Amino acid sequence: MRQLQGMDASFVALETRNSPMHIGSILIYNPETAPGGFVRFKDILAFFESRMQLSRTIRQRLVRVPFDLDYPYWVEDPDFDLEYHVRHLALPKPGDWRQLCIQAARIFARPLDLTRPPWEFTVVEGLENVEGVPKGSYAMVTKVHHAAIDGMSGVDLLEAMHTLDPAAPPPSEPDTWQPEKIPNAAELLGKSYFNALTNPMKQIDVAARAAPGLAKAIKGLAAKDFRVTTDLVAPRTRFNRKISPHRVVQGVSVPLADIKAIRALSPGCKVNDVFLAIIGGGLHKYLTAKDDLPKRTMTAMAPISVREKDEKGDMGNQVAAMIAPLGTHIAEPVRRLEYVHEHTVNSKAMTNALGARNMTEVSKVSPALYMSLGARLYTQLGLSERVKQPFSTVVTNVPGPPVPIYSCGARLESQMGLICLTDGMGVAHTVQSYVDEATICFTACRELLPDPDFYIACIEESFHELRDAAQDASTGPATGQATNEKSAGEKKRPARKTAAPGKTKRTAGKNTTRKKTGTQSKKGRSTS
To answer: Most buried among 36, 113, 328, 520, by the most CB within 10 A?
Structure first.
């Protein structure tokens, strides 16, 4: 039995019907590499069962302390049932991408049962009419509670359920897992009393370790190693309000090589800066069209992993946060990228001065009762409508495997990240890479962002502008002009049907992108 840390416990405290605190993905698999070129549901169950010992997340459930007087505990579930967590459904004909999105959104909108291990994987068959996906392919919609994993440990879970070789044998080490007894209320209250006595000493220890970081930050501010500006203060937007239980999700896939090429537009620019500038451009276009663009730049909370190598298999969250301006007030794409790069360098310097690891350590000693009460009051009193938000959205960058991976012998073709929302944050973005593909995806409240197709078109156009600028800069005026004419010609062509996830990654280096169908929640639209 292990106790949750402060940040992990906060995700449990924030859980509501409108705001389920899980993250996940839509994964597309091609079974042509599996034995016989076919994968049955019972094969997937057997594959997962043979690898459960590789992840601590799979068989542990939450046990909450009465009255939330202390952080919850992880307990090895004595009633674990794999078939409850790995589910199976099939799309009706015609089995297209829109139908898959409808199912994925409905699945992701539903809260997890926190009396069981907090994860569900739903296998979706019947992808018979998705362009670019061979018949017989299947999808998997995953969701795992954020209390159990952060982005990097989620990658570890992904690795546990995949292999590098389609014919890889099961793990050779025996499964020594043993269930645990669920503690009763008296035992939990006794532990909380002991923790209440020792917590002040822990707080003193954390404060002592955080003091050098605070001193370093003050010294850095005085020496002008970084600066605190109003650009780090988020303006209020239409997305920073109370959210509904309904979701829309959508994404665009682009060649990873194009993202790396765009970095040359601003010396020292990182891949993450490029993604931030693309999303900033998308928000600029979307809010300009709505006549609702704030005069100051919107900001993003960008999680930073502080997970050590020896913590790779640990559950929970080992992340700090950096506030990054998105340059939404700048229309010109290259100038926006330069602005984002300049300010992320400043934000990183500030975060490094404070000590990213110290930020996570402070959260571990926050009183559980106050955290739980604060989360409930924030929701019940509607404080998201009254209190100014520290950031406008979230942009989390999760690097995926650089080589193809396989589950039950089937090759993973593409992945699309899904992310949780809270009151006051009605849209969040996930950036993922896999082999030579990068996906920029968003999850949003349907009431706050009712037109996901338009927003993803804005993000795609923002990418095109930066890609074309990078090509112009690298090839010279003459070739650049030809490239622009080609791009203009492409825009005039009739829109083709939505391509399948993973198709664009085979076109790396070409001037192509692929838009994924959005999800909404009414009949006739992809919904949740």
So the answer is: 328
> Dihedral of CA 11/12/14/18: which sign?
positive
Question: What is the tens place of the pLDDT at every residue in 199-239?
Answer: 667 666 666 665 665 566 566 555 555 555 656 678 999 99
The gap from C-alpha 9 to its chain's centroid, in whole angstroms, comes to 19
Predicted structure pTM score = 0.81
What are the structure tokens assigned to 222, written together? 């005085």
Q: What are phi and psi of 353, to 5 degrees?
A: -65, -45
Which tokens belong to 130?
């998705």
Cβ neighbours, 10 Å, residue 81: 10
For strand 299-305 and strand 410-418, is the pairing parallel, antiparallel, or unpaired?
unpaired
Spatial CB neighbours of 50, under 8 Å, sequence gap ≥ 6: 170, 171
The rounded distance, in Å, linking the Cα atoms of 231 and 214 is: 22
Under DSSP, is residue 224 helix (H, G, I), strand (E, B) or coil?
coil
Q: How many CB atoms lie within 10 A of CB 196?
A: 14
List the end-to-end C-alpha distance of the chain, in Å, as a whole number: 36
Nearest to 440 by CA among 416, 420, 464, 468: 416
Q: 123: closest CA among 83, 164, 163, 78?
A: 83
Q: What is the DSSP letter of 166?
A: T
Alpha-carbon torsion angle 231, 262, 25, 515, nearest 10: 110
d(CA 425, CA 240): 5
Yes or no: say if 405 and 239 are a contact pair by the CB < 8 Å rule.
Answer: no
176's tokens: 């020594």
What is the per-residue pLDDT across 137-171, written as a single tens digit (0 to 9) for each? 999 999 999 988 854 555 667 778 999 999 999 99
What are the helix (H) ranges across 298-402?
A: 333-354, 356-363, 368-380
Token pair of 471, please?
Answer: 């090509």
- Which of 460, 414, 447, 456 minimizes the C-alpha distance to 520? 447
Beta strand spans in 31-72 (E)? 60-63
